UniProtKB/TrEMBL annotation:
This is Uncharacterized protein. It comes from the Bacteria.
Length: 71
């Protein structure tokens, strides 16, 4: 994947996640991991915005998983 393709994929992912409701944004986590891996393979650091988004989506999936768990 070229640098331009990777940046376009990043932009497309961020746009796709921005249009989702907070409870379903974590469904894009797999694609986010793939893009982060592509940055790593290319020898480039992932943008801060992607790392922040990864943290947010990881928190959302944890909350979604344990939200209805009895106490």
């Amino acid at each position: 994947m070229t640098v331009d393709e990777l940046e376009q994929e990043t932009h497309d992912l961020i746009d796709a996640i921005a249009t989702q409701a907070p409870g379903s944004r974590h469904l894009h986590l797999g694609r986010l991991h793939d893009i982060m891996a592509a940055y790593s393979r290319s020898g480039r650091a992932a943008p801060v915005s992607l790392r922040r988004l990864l943290d947010e989506l990881t928190s959302e999936i944890v909350e979604a998983r344990y939200e209805n768990m009895p106490v």
